Amino acid sequence: MVLLQQGSSSVTFEVKAHSIGQVTVYLESNSSEILSSSTRIRFAVVSSNTLTIINEVIGWIYFVAWSISFYPQVWENWRGKSVVGLNFDFLFLNITGFICYSIFNVGLFWVPYIKEEFLKVNPNGVYPVEASDVFFSLHALLICLVYVGQAAIYERGGQTVSRISWAITIICWMFILIGLFVALGGVLPWLGYLSFFSYVKLGITVIKYTPQAYMNYRRKSTGGWSIGNVLLDFIGGTFNEWQLILGDPTKFLLGLISVAFDILFMVQHYCLYQPSRHHAAIEAQLTKL
Predict the structure, then answer these.
(1) How many CB atoms within 10 Å of residue 120?
(2) How far is CA 27 from each of CA 18, 21, 39, 120, 127, rounded to the nearest angstrom?
(3) Where is 43: in which H helix or E strand?
(4) pLDDT-based confidence at residue 283 (cuts at 50, 70, 90)
(5) 3-state SS assignment for residue 26
(6) Alpha-carbon distance 181 to 29, whole Å?
(7) How far apart (Å, rounded) are the C-alpha atoms in residues 19 and 24?
(8) What is the DSSP letter of 13?
(9) CA distance linking residue 170 with residue 224, whole number of Å
(10) Would you tell me how many other CB atoms lie within 10 Å of the CB of residue 78?
(11) Which residue has the higher pLDDT, 94 or 62?
(12) Please, where are the H alpha helices in 87-130?
């Protein structure tokens, strides 16, 4: 314990690390003007500065790759004036997922009460949300809404959202609504309620790619489904996986699922349904759907 004498404005102390991780130092005061719970210093303990820099670079690579991965599909839709190759169930579920992800990130990043709850529960834990996470989720939601606008004006081939996707979405929002009433009743802390949104996002991520993969299989074509989107998403997901090795497993599951489906989409596009082999059949299917 280091004592700050009355009348002093600073104190010097030494911190020794015994293992890699994070150390939090708290200020305990008998003055009512200083809140001990909100006065803390966090020290990140790393084994190598080079490793830290590599970690930061990797983080920015997957952030940029994931952020721009949405644009090739926008271009694909605009170029063909068609959304026939973009599965509506995938789009519908994706919007729900990113709404929930945005609420989760905004709550943890911008709401002081939620941030304080997290630090009380995890005093030495790594804070799970950064500014880049907030930007990514809000940006992704915005681009998904652009998809919706394109679906409203471009050729859709008679596509509609399936009853299964409607049912899944309704169940997700009922889950969130029930959690809200429980939180309002004081049974569930607000931090716990905010976690409901992350659970929905994870659940949506597990299932949202399946309709698109099945539609590609049924059509024997990936026409209208942007491979640029897939490749950039694969790059982002792959670099995100390295964050687990480097000590940040927060987004590991999302990246793992995305990478697995990206590989499937690449196999469909480059191996199973090559445009050069099936060009005529694809064009016929696109006009009939």
Answers:
(1) 11
(2) 22, 20, 6, 15, 20
(3) strand 40-45
(4) very low
(5) strand
(6) 38
(7) 14
(8) -
(9) 28
(10) 13
(11) 94
(12) 88-110, 112-121
Read off the tokens for 198. 């992350």
Contact 194, 104 (CB under 8 A): yes
SS3 122: coil
In this structure, what is the dihedral angle of CA atoms 209, 256, 196, 101, given to the nearest 10 degrees? -70
Query: 119-138: per-residue pLDDT in tens?
Result: 788 766 667 788 888 999 99
- Name the CA dihedral angle for 124, 129, 131, 135, rounded to a multiple of 10 degrees: 180
How far, in Å, CA of 129 to CA of 122, rounded?
14
Q: 26: which strand partners?
A: 40
**Average pLDDT for residues 192-213, to the nearest whole number?**
93
Extents of the domains making up the chain: 49-97+144-288
pLDDT (0 to 100) of residue 149: 96
- Cβ(206)–Cβ(260) under 8 Å? no
Residue 289 has pLDDT above 50, yes or no: no
Q: Is 132 left (phi over 0), alpha (psi -120 to 50) or beta?
A: alpha
Q: CB-side exposure of 12: number of CA atoms within 13 Å?
A: 0
> Which residues on neighbouring strands pair with residue 23, listed in sequence order?
43
**How distant, in Å, are the alpha carbons of 113, 193, 251 from that of 180?**
16, 7, 25
Tell me the helix, strand and coil percentages in the chain, rounded to 5.
65, 5, 30
Token digits of residue 102: 């945005």
